[in-house]
Amino acid sequence: MKIIGHRGARGLAPENTIAGLKKGLEHKVDEVEFDLRVTKDGVVVLHHDRDLVDPNGKRLSIAGHTYRELQAHKPDLPTLSQALDALKNTVPLYIEVKPGEPAAPIITALQTALENGWRAEDFRLASFSFPLLQAFHAALPDIELIVNERWSGVRGTFRARKLGTKRLSIYYLWLWSGFIKATSRRGYKLSTYPMNNPVKARRWERSGLYAAITDYPDRFERKTTR
Which of 27, 32, 116, 223 is 20 to 30 A from 86 (CA-CA)? Predict the structure, then answer.
């Protein structure tokens, strides 16, 4: 079973920051996951919510403000370019693009990365948005896609078939061993999020769970035997 750091390692460090991503790497994750949004001036940044809330409680929409304006309120708000610089030659990057975000700036940023030494196999592109996944499949056909799904295995596997991918990610509260086993037998690589219980994860691993996306990768860190 693979261990994927959720938003870096959000239980151990600020989520979707360079520090958070590096914290995930410290605990030897197999992949590191983070979220993308696009600012008013077209900068691709790491952030989960539509709005940024600064330490004083001021709320600013990511899409409604420039990167410089947002960074003034959150100095550790990283761009995708900065994240790639920090993570190069480490582990594959599980990149979740939030629904409603424009595909074009993200496609351009990834095409630039591919032209500058990154490989298609260094990336996985995930989304809950089927149209976004279709756009990525058309523009970046060599990058593996992940269908994110909250609860419907039927919808998730249907979308995966349409996109020609075997990667599927479903919210942990909607999973059970029988479904995991059946999905695995059909050749799907099923991840679940956020999985912070290593005992349950290992039990599901025996049913065929492919990966646990966790806030606490330290709980899953493999111990070296002497």
Answer: 223
202 vs 208: CA distance, rounded Å: 10
CATH number where 41 lies? 3.20.20.190
* Total domains in the fold of the chain: 1
Q: Which pLDDT tens digit goes with each residue over 121-136?
A: 999 999 999 999 999 9
Is residue 207 a part of any domain in this protein? yes
- End-to-end CA distance of the chain, in Å? 22
Give the domain extent around 95.
Answer: 2-220
* pLDDT greater than 60 at residue 61: yes
Helical (H) or strand (E) element with 3: strand 2-5
Is 145 among the domain residues? yes
Instruction: For residues 103 and 132, give the distance between their C-alpha atoms in angstroms, rounded to a whole number.
Output: 6
pTM reported for the whole predicted model: 0.96
